[in-house]
Write a structure and sequence with these properties.
It comes from Erwinia tasmaniensis (strain DSM 17950 / CFBP 7177 / CIP 109463 / NCPPB 4357 / Et1/99). The protein is mainly α and 68 residues long. The chain is built from three helices and two strands, in the order H-E-H-E-H. It has a two-stranded antiparallel sheet with strand order 1-2. The longest helix has 18 residues. It is globular. It starts with a helix and ends with a helix.
Length: 68
């Protein structure tokens, strides 16, 4: 994944942890707006999340930070 989305993933996960605590879960949709304005980036993250990492729909934010 490109460095810009890696940084955004970490930032979003850290923000969710700050609000909801260490056990908060996220899906890869959490890193995108509700608009499909960058389908290539969405597919890049989906490929990493589903095919490479074999993650479930929701995963703990702390786990995602460690994988990124």
């Amino acid at each position: 994944m490109r460095p810009s989305i890696r940084a955004k993933i970490v930032k979003v996960c850290e923000a969710k942890i700050a609000v909801k605590g260490n056990d908060v879960g996220v899906s890869f949709y959490a890193f995108f707006s509700n608009k499909n304005d960058d389908p290539e980036l969405l597919m890049e993250v989906a490929q990493w999340w589903i095919m490479e990492m074999k993650l479930d729909h929701f995963e703990k934010a702390r786990k995602i930070i460690s994988l990124v």
